[in-house]
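Because discrete structure vocabularies remain unfamiliar, we turn briefly to a single example record, giving the amino acid sequence and backbone structure tokens:
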Amino acid sequence: MRRRGVLRGLFLAAACLSFLLNAAVLGLAIRAYSKGIFPFGPLGMGLISMPAERRTQVLEGLRPDLPELRALLEAVQARREEMIAVASADPVDAAKLEAALAEMRAATAQLQGALHESVLESLTAEQDR
């Protein structure tokens, strides 16, 4: 009987902790969304902490590059789906999984590089004039 009480207490503590963490994440997302930012993804969390003027400058600077960035993001998502399919096979083929992970890593690096280049351009464009 005592063990059941301990388990019940642990479950209640875990449920409370889960609720608090979810509330914190939701609060951050609402705060960011109210500023016009989608708070997740490669750039979202960094934009939240920028001053409003700088954030606007970055977002406006990214606008011309959005089609390219969207295509690169879709490539990352496709590589991730391929990796999941390989990793879900039974048995897992280590060589195929290694190749799928390498392709996903390369696609992610390409997206990150393009995104960083766009952010750098948007923040330094006025200086270059």
In short: The first helix runs from residue 2 to 34.
